[in-house]
Amino acid sequence: MKLRPVVLVLLILAGFYYLTSRLIPQGALAGIVQRRLADTKGLMVGGPINHFGLTEANAAPTVDAEEQQNIGVYKKALPSVVNITSTQVAYDFFYRAYPQQGQGSGFILDKEGHILTNNHVVEGAQQVQVTLWNQKQYKATVVAVDRTHDIALIQIHNVPNLEPATLADSNGLLVGQRVYALGNPFGFSGTMTRGIISALRAVQLPSGTKIDNAIQTDASVNPGNSGGPLLNSHGDVIGITTMIATNPNGNADQSAGIGFAIPISTAKAVLGDFAKYGHVRRPSLDIVTIPIGPDIAEELGLPSMPGILVERTLQGGAAERAGLHGGTQRMYMGNEPVMLGGDLIVGLDGEEITSPQDLGNALNEHHPGDVVTITVFRGQKKMSFKVTLSDAKEMANGQTA
Fold this sequence. Notes:
The chain is an alpha+beta fold. It folds into 4 domains: about 5-55, no CATH class; about 80-155, Thrombin, subunit H; about 180-275, Thrombin, subunit H (Beta Barrel); about 285-395, Pdz3 Domain, CATH 2.30.42.10. Helix content is about 20%, strand content about 35%. The chain has 8 helices and 24 strands. It has helices spanning about 5-25, 30-40, 65-75, 120, 265-275, 295-300, 320, 355-365; strands spanning about 45, 50-55, 80-90, 95-110, 115, 125-130, 135-145, 150-155, 180-185, 190-205, 210-215, 230, 235-245, 260-265, 285, 285-290, 305-315, 330-335, 335-340, 345-350, 350, 370-380, 380-390, 390. The strands form 6 sheets. Strands 3-4-5-8-7-6 form a 6-stranded antiparallel beta barrel. Strand 6 and strand 7 (about 135-145) form a beta hairpin. Mean pLDDT is about 85; it is low at about 30-40 and about 395-400.
């Protein structure tokens, strides 16, 4: 009788062993235990190779505040951004014609279908096609161009439910502000990248034209971004992405970490001329200048203050007619020959002028034919001149400032 409990325990153990080793598939019981563990610690997966414990995230918000801002900018701006395909006729070695296509970006300005982009995106095109964010395609016509600022206005017709972009003011921009580039790099539509304003400087376009107060950014831009919007953190347009910095070999096949955008305030002035005259009337002093700091000014016998030195006045131009003087002494700054000894511009209509950006912003507030007061130092003598601004397009040599 005393052996009966022992025998019973042995029978139960033998039955359990037989059940788990013969009747239940291998790993099934472990799977039950593992799934139980997954409810509290993570996910256990098993198979022919091994068993793995995967730690899963707890339920939480999918995006943080910064990511939410990025998403908000994208959702706001995307419907106004377009892909532009330009087609022109090219010729092969045997002078056989074939279509050659280029791609760029742009953004919608109004419900009538006007779109702003770069001139180099559509220049020379026999056909321009616009693809909206919803992949619908329309033929576009070129309304007006400004080669000087690399700006073009095109239009698509009879398109319902267009969503125009919101344009900001680019005059108060600061280095360090967050920016977003939205466009179609390499044809990948609806691509957004993020960076900051890394500088505000004058840059020279491939055409040779200098753009004052251009926005330099480290937001990644590539071929196909040209003409697309550069946005602030509210999703408003502050510039038109126009070019990538070239490397020492002169190539810019991909992002170099430095891109440039035309300030939207400059584009607004151009659009104003398009609307009023059908072409651009650009005010000019007709001078060639170089910026100098207080230390160089003092070496030249000028007051120790920043300003713009008049290197040369264009013959018959606005500054020469008003009596401003250019340089008379040839010297070198680095490897660049310059003419020194001219007037130092320090003000326009009472506003301080310390850089080409200041002068460009001040001139953008005026039109050809306006009379402005230019304050200069000629040596140590402070002088003022009344200058009637000319139209830059009237100058045969095309050099304006």
